Amino acid sequence: MPQLLSATEARILGVLIEKAKTTPDAYPLTVNSLTAGCNQKTSREPVMSLSESEIQSALEELRSRTLVMESYGASGRVLRYAHNFAKVYGVPAASVDLLAILILRGSQTASELRANSERLHRFADASSVEAFLEELAAKDSGAMVLKLPRQPGAREQRWTHLLCGMPTVESISTSFSTPPSALVSDLEARVERLELEVAELRTSLARQAAE
Which residues pair with 101 in a beta bridge? Predict the structure, then answer.
């Protein structure tokens, strides 16, 4: 596998792959559009705040590795950038789209990846997503994804990309979603009801014992 990417380089590639499918009329992207895509507040994990100079510097590095290509588009006035991911990494288009979603949204289950990649590629089911991921994990040139250990209470295991290297323990632990406040409140309410029921049962048993 080619040398590892920085977080900024990975984010740029993820955005280029995404926008090539979701906004084809605006692709290739200008530095301004690319910066906006990298700093989106939605559909991004983590949210980043990159300057145009940081984007430009990362683009130069990616261009030197042929991961991005420059062009002037139809207007011929503003420099634009396109990705060359599939050719450099030697993976099919469906795998490129899955990697982009992992780059942009963090670790996910096969079911989550299928739902989140709908605008880029339509997978028949979660099993077909798993098949592409297993292929990426077993690449002869080096694994590009990793299946994370199952979390307590989770039905499915999550996958993460390895384009920036092996994830740290901290990044793995924080990649799992925090339960929504509504769910937490519901659990607290259930515990409170159970405690009341236990207290009532104890009172009832004590009364019967006294009688």
Answer: none
* Residue given tokens 């792959």 in the structure block: 17
Q: Token pair of 181, please?
A: 């406040």
| pTM exceeding the 0.85 threshold for the entire prediction | no
Architecture of the 7-175 domain: Orthogonal Bundle (1.10)
pLDDT in tens, the chain (211 residues): 778 999 999 999 999 999 999 999 999 999 999 999 999 999 999 999 999 999 999 999 999 999 999 998 666 788 999 999 999 999 999 999 999 999 999 999 999 999 999 999 999 999 999 999 999 999 999 999 999 998 888 889 999 999 999 987 555 554 544 444 444 444 555 566 666 666 667 766 776 776 6
Q: What residues does each domain of the chain span? A: 7-175, 179-211
The one-letter amino acid code at 194 reads: L
Rounded Cα distance, 48 and 65, in Å: 23
CA distance 15 to 55: 12
Q: What is the residue whose two structure tokens read 């259930």?
A: 190
